[in-house]
Design brief:
By secondary structure, this protein is an all-alpha fold. The chain has a domain at 107-161 and 223-294. It has 14 helices and no strands. The chain has helices at residues 10-16, 30-43, 48-57, 67-79, 81-90, 100-130, 135-160, 177-184, 189-199, 204-213, 224-232, 235-245, 253-269, 273-294. It starts with 9 loop residues before the first helix and ends with a helix.
């Protein structure tokens, strides 16, 4: 797997990057970083990542958890670290870059699921509108699509989930910290010491170099959070659309919903090709439905 430093793609540019933080984003204090690193260490208990986060936590100030730290710890427990990686890095938690690959995978999963959902949504609306179905029928169909999509993704998540392959390193409790894991990996003591020294500087290059020599640090891309978000993403466009249909006039309300969904594909993909294709598919489905209905 390539090093973190070589991941130059649209996800990094749009969500992580290494640009200066925006002025309205408040950086984590040293005590906040320590609290979050310790929680991440507990989250990764039993893996080499446990010692990685303990090493970083040891560099920060130890103070009682602030309200802000408790808030982010709550988010980590509910959403998982991968989804929050861009926000954590922007607030100065550089050690979270370890989750960059998992965050990229999570982002791609959600985008793919949203694209599929929106395409099915607008196609279904155009099909039923072409046959001049009532608004209640359109709403009921969207509800069925939402429930069916969530059920299908949940079933797929359970059927396709693969447990991470076990590594040959000693367990986190059986080793003498990250240094012991590096020695067990076969690195020379001087190189292991240098890697830990560079890690304490918390630079991106140091973390990438450590990952290169100890690839077991890379978190698995698949997790219960990843599959759950992919399933829940079916509800994001469908439920508001079903609600909006009940508020708009029956004659052209479905058109407004379709246009809003097509615009949403631009926000998801940040390029015009996908909205254009979805819009073309909507027009074609509606035209074919009208043609069949007239016959």
């Amino acid at each position: 797997m390539p090093c973190l430093i070589s991941q130059t793609n649209s996800f990094n540019e749009a969500h992580i990057g290494h640009a200066a933080p925006l002025q309205f984003i408040s950086m984590f204090s040293s005590s906040d970083k320590a609290a979050i690193y310790l929680v991440l260490s507990d989250h990764e208990s039993g893996s080499p990542r446990q010692w990685y986060f303990l090493e970083l936590a040891a560099l920060e100030a130890k103070e009682p958890r602030s309200k802000r730290a408790r808030f982010w710890i709550f988010l980590l427990a509910k959403l998982g670290p991968a989804l929050l990686t861009p926000a954590l890095i922007k607030r100065g938690l550089n050690g979270a870059i370890l989750y960059q690959n998992a965050a990229q995978h999570r982002y791609q999963l959600i985008c793919q699921s949203l694209n599929d959902t929106i395409l099915l949504n607008v196609s279904l609306l155009a099909l039923l509108a072409g046959f001049e179905r009532l608004t209640a029928s359109l709403q009921f169909s969207l509800w069925l699509l939402a429930i069916g999509g969530v059920g299908w993704q949940t079933w797929r998540a359970r059927a396709t989930f693969i447990e991470p392959a076990p590594h040959s390193l000693p367990g986190a409790e059986a080793s003498l910290g990250l240094y012991g894991l590096l020695i067990a990996k076969g690195l020379a003591p001087t190189l292991a010491t240098q890697l830990l020294h560079d890690l304490r500087k918390q630079s991106v290059h140091a973390i990438a170099s450590l990952q290169k020599h100890l690839p077991e640090l890379i978190p698995p891309t698949g997790s219960r959070h990843a599959k759950s978000f992919k399933a829940c993403s079916w509800l994001i466009p469908l439920l508001p659309c079903a609600w909006l249909l009940g508020l708009l006039p029956a004659d052209w309300g479905w058109m407004i919903c379709c246009m809003l969904l097509i615009a949403a594909t631009y926000l998801v993909n940040r390029q015009w090709q996908t909205p254009a294709l979805v819009g073309l598919a909507t027009v074609c489905v509606y035209a074919l439905a009208r043609l069949v209905h007239w016959w």
